[in-house]
Amino acid sequence: MAIIGAGIAGAAAAHRLHAAGRRVVVFDKSRGPGGRMATRRGPDGLRFDHGAQFFTARDPRFAARVEDWTARGVAAPWGGPHRHAGTPGMSAPARDLLAGIDLRCGRAVGRLVRDGEAWRLQEADGTALAEGTAFSTVFLTCPSPQSLALLAGAGRDLPGVGDVRYAPCWTLMLAHDGPPPFDGPVREDRDPDAVFAWIARDDTKPGRDGGTLVAHAAPAWSRANLEEPADRIAERLVAALKTLVPVGTVRHAAAHRWRYAQVERAVGADCLFAPETGLGFAGDGCLGPRVELAYLSGLALAERVIDGGAP
């Protein structure tokens, strides 16, 4: 089985399938796993959780997983009641789930090609991925627009995938010299006209560096400036941040664009699967914009295949 995307949904699906004795290969275009549960490295050993900031656990299955992560130092409480963060970075839970699984990062799947009753994976230029291997089942756990492109290229459809809508987000990663710029770990702003929706003292998380902030621009601001160069965005966000909090001398500032940051409209089903083609879709686009829901979606898709007896 092939899984495209090594975020928390893909990792959850892979972990469940591997535990059931299925052979799984996970592909991701990034340099490491985690998806939007991301940790970015900066100069001088700096690290920033520039994607998802925390996760909560309400479902008993995910709560049990978080309890295990916490006991083993993969996650720790942070930022308020029932909130947890990965340690030493937000990508740690996905890495833990994928331990012992065939993970191939830096491999961008560009095409799905039907070969009899199976699928072969190729890069966009037609170069084969997993040379000599055909997959009976392919899980798409990347964002809906990317999944739609792969489905369209294969001449296939999974009804519901196209219904997902996302808000974009520009994220500022900043290191500064000076005292803490505000009390507590986070500042939130629900004003739709604000520049920032969320500012976090990243250094309040367990094992993080001192003097680091992560600030998420609000959806409306991010949409209005989505195609601006990252260096220009970083300058503008630093200037806006300085009007809100004292940050002292800036040692490092960089911006990252998330085109598909947060689900605004989900499918409303735990996963999508077409047994006749072996194609499935899972992720936060199925149930909603929470790490826990993405995990449960990946788990549901794996169990759909296991219970259905797919090879």
From TrEMBL:
Q: Which SUPFAM superfamilies match?
A: FAD/NAD(P)-binding domain
Q: Which PANTHER family match?
A: FAD/NAD(P)-BINDING OXIDOREDUCTASE FAMILY PROTEIN, FAD_NAD(P)-BINDING OXIDOREDUCTASE FAMILY PROTEIN
Q: What is this protein called?
A: FAD-dependent oxidoreductase
What organism, scientifically named, is this protein from? Answer: Methylobacterium indicum
Lineage here is: Bacteria, Pseudomonadati, Pseudomonadota, Alphaproteobacteria, Hyphomicrobiales
